[in-house]
Amino acid sequence: MGNKKILIADDIDLMRSMLSFHIRKLGYKDITTARNGREAVSLYKAKKIDIAFLDIDMPELNGLEALKQIKEHNPEAYVVIISGVNTLENIEAAIASGVSGFIVKPYSPQKVSDALRNYERKLEY
Amino acid sequence: MNKLNKITLELEKERRARVEAENQLKAREKELELNRKALKEMTVHLDILVKSRTVDLAKTRDEALSGNKAKSEFLANMSHEIRTPLAAIIGFSESLKDNYLSQADTSEAINTIIRNSQHLLNIINEILDISKIESQRFEIENVPVHPIEILNEIEQIVGMQAREKGLTFCINYSLPIPLGIISDPTRLKQILLNLCSNAIKFTHIGGVQIDVNYKSEDNLMYFAVIDSGIGIPEDKQNKLFQPFYQTDSSTTRKYGGSGLGLYITKKLTEMLGGTLRFYCVQDQGCRFEASVSAGELDTANMIYNETDFPAFQSKPVEAVSVPQLCGRVLLAEDWPDNQKLIALYIKTTGADITIVENGRLAVEKALAEEFDLVLMDVQMPVMDGIKATELLRKTGYSRPIIALTASVMEGNVQKYHEAGFTHYLGKPIDRALFFDILSSYLNPDEIKARREYAENVQQSCEFENLVADFVNNLPSVLKDVRDSATQNRWNDFEKLIHVLKGAGGSFGYQEITNLCIKIETLSKTGNNHVATAMLHELEEVSQSIIKDAAI
Known about the structure:
Distance between the termini of chain A: 16 Å
Strand order of the largest sheet of chain A: 2-1-3-4-5
Shape of chain B: flat
Radius of gyration of chain A: 13 Å
Structural class of chain B: alpha/beta
Number of strands of chain A: 5
Order of helices and strands of chain A: EHEHEHEHEH
Number of strands of chain B: 14
Largest interface: A-B, 37 and 36 residues
Radius of gyration of chain B: 40 Å
Largest sheet of chain B: 5 strands, mixed
Helix content of chain A: 40-55%
Oligomer: heterodimer
Strand content of chain A: 15-25%
Order of helices and strands of chain B: HHEHEEEHEEHHEEEEHEHEHEHEHHHHHH
């Protein structure tokens, strides 16, 4: 767990800190952060990220666009989209772009740990 | 002379030519005659063919018509059959609304409603059986079965029905019989129950008995159900096993039943490797003999003496016990009555329930909140349960999702698993089964562990520091919101409210999130003034949060 590389992209500082805190609580230590989609894509490519958490609503490049670019770079990429809106249209758009997890804000310990547990479970298969 | 010779030769030549022509003509005539004969034969053949085809067609048409007629009659009977119990259910339910019913009348009314509902369910199950038989999707089990145990159970059910009607009921064993056979216990029981309930239905005086024996020559178990009832008229006997058939439609009216029972019973005995025979005399009673294959027998295990009968525990009718549970259940169900019923069941266990009425809302709700279990109706408007479950699984949703479905045919069950359902429950919901499934998926230890983890995280020092940052930042965020509203910068306003909506609950202030949801909706629908008015509330809530944090 501890050696998995995690990327968090969100333009709101406090939200980034909160997600990072939840992830660290679960035993993950290697966490990289980005402030927009463009930064997220280049950090993903440069750092061989295992799991990326992308906020859907970011400046420069939004979460879904960043997800698409990451998927183009690595079709196996494990990306969780974070959204403040839980409408079906959003969810379907994320699925169509190849999302692996979908968290609706507000954050809770449970939502974050479910997303990471799913990743670990997928590794076991 | 020469000239004469020449003429004679010419003549002779012409004569030969004529003979030749005549011969040719005769040959042609013969050929023609042959052709004509062949043609005639062919015409006759064609005629026969046309006639036989016409007969075939007429027969097919008649069969189709009579099949159609049987089906129409069946449908007419069916609607009558369904209406009758329904009328009782509706009538007695309505009478329950009246307050003047005595305690005894009330409980009688409830019993009648339950009995008629069960009867309705039986009819529908029979129709399902038929459709499975006709589409050859019936699965037969081959497991060890104790005939004596099955017959004990039959005696419990049928014996009571017989005694209620003032009839005798007994089972006679011709020993030796095998202790165990290899067969399908559910289907064997269904065969015997069908035959026995028919026997009781058509018997008014006397009784019903089952003769049981085993023949080693053909390795078959024989169960003969004998009654002293009204029998079956001879001219109706050959139609007895036709589906949708009853001796006459007045039978339905007088005795009830769908006319499917015997057809199903016959098919079932055949699937169990035996046959169903009968011998009836009008007004004297009937003998229906079902045989089923005994399978691979352990011949050492034969019972030669009645004292060797094993004692099988008779299964008492279990009272459904309600488990004590906790956790949050999301129910997606469009039918208000089903919503109420399932909500009632769940509330009695102590678990919490949230209800949505279609698949789309189920997806949105399941992702936005935290549930421990999802109950998903399969057929719903807007988005069905299968699509909703597929979508949830694609987003990585990992909680158990149980399908609630009226069609539990095999093909469908496969479909449910592929869609990502964890389990399925047939409708109408069997209360005992429902509680079983609920208990196994609402595991109190797991739920408690999840809750404890969440509490621990939120009580940690680091979390408190983050919350403090959030609270310290609140006044400036609120000022930005207020400024954007007074300066009519509505895009900025919406963005700020949206961020605050996601943040509030994340830092433990769900009340901020809830207020922001309201304000965001108002603003998005163009009600900026109402949205601005609600800012007061948001500011008040925030003030008290800031005040509390300062202490």
